[in-house]
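Workshop exercise sheet. Pairs work together: one partner reads the sequence aloud, the other fills in the structure field after running the prediction. Swap roles for the next sheet.
Pair: D.N. / O.F.
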Amino acid sequence: MKSRYPIMTRARPLALALGGAALAAAALAGCSDATGKAAPAVAGAPPVSASVVVEKTIAETQEFSGRLEAIDVVAIRPRVSGYITAVNFKPGSEVKNGDVLFEIDRRPFQAEADRATAVFDAARAKAELARLELNRAEKLVADQAISQREYDERAAAWKELDASARSARAQAEAAKLNLSYTRVISPITGRVSKAEITLGNLVDSTTVLTSLVSQDRIYAGFDGDESTYLRLAERAHGGKPVVVRAGLANEDGFPHEGKLEFVDNQLDTRTGSVRMRAVFANKDRDMAPGLFARVQIRGDQREELLITDRAVGTDQSHKFVFVVGPQGKAQYREVTLGPIVDGLRVVRHGLKPGETIIVNGLQRVKPGVPVTVQNVPMLASAATSKKE
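Structure field:
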């Protein structure tokens, strides 16, 4: 039996195909560049978005992870042995240079100082008497009232007693010095830890009483890579200032400004890094030794090419982009990337100023195949903008 609707059955697929082609043509015709002008469509070419590479003068920055370190760290130990009789600070408080932190029983040292002083006084008196007798002997030997031998004996006696007096004076000074060591003082201004030894304990010179760190300034130690070393070592070793900024874990950005103070003389061949250290003022005392710090080093200003991270593809260990070449064909271009600046990625090598790269639709692109381009501004990717 023949179909009652032979014409409609055959015409429907053709009408649908023609309608789909018309819609696709209308969609391609609706693509426009940044100026609002429609980009020419190539038959069978996949639609993509493309942007012109941004050329900008920037001050490139590098960021590192580091730890804060105290400039002065002192382990407080007693210089004499004895019993602790006083602890004169609160744990964690700030102390000044010369403040008395601990006191050791001074009575035995006071007695020894008094004894040594008395011995010195007696020796000095004998030496003074010997000197007077030597002066008389000089006049007598000149008048030949005594023999030369007797004079020589008196001169030798004076020298011996004078040496004994000087030895006694040294012992007296040592005893007074030990007496002063019964007051354990702070050698620097800084923040003190807790007392490791409490009142009534016997201590000696090997005992650590507490520790002390300076606070006025602080170090930030971090590891730089080989390129950082090659860029900064000559300036740092030559005494030229290198500005360094730092931020703590609870801070936004890098509010603390300091300068590079130290670059090590060799790289660690195992890690390919070199130890560096910057110094910062710490007037507000908000930077403490041991805290994590983000460290930023700003480089010199220069012209750089910038692209969005959305335009970058990965081919095994290589990074690449697609450049829109002549006749709208996509060109594979391997690139060397740098850091992120203002949400865009620095391109070291692989691109030229004024070139247009594909930023959306990479999955539809093949090298050497024409594409239908819609020009859009070069914008940072959402992930990069959030990170920044």
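Discussion prompt: Residues 225 and 278 are 16 Å apart (CA to CA). What would you look at next?
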